[in-house]
# Entry
Amino acid sequence: MVFTGFSPFTERVAKGQSANAIIADMTHRLGAVQEVFIIAVSPPVRGLGNQGGFKLKVQDRSGNGVRAPVAASYQLIGAARLCTPNI
# Structure
């Protein structure tokens, strides 16, 4: 297993090196290797990830107790589920 990073986007964009273009090129080139199974995948967004999800903290600034931030949290989760079909 090998993990590698991309060059900064600003350096790659002028050369037409989007993440998808790099992955397609790697898949094509590495497909010639017969002795192993190789798969190239897009790197996760730093801090979010493809498997790890993300963290969000809700802070109660009103001092009205725990019910308001819990309700706001569930409302936010519901809205996120509408935007992301895999949640």
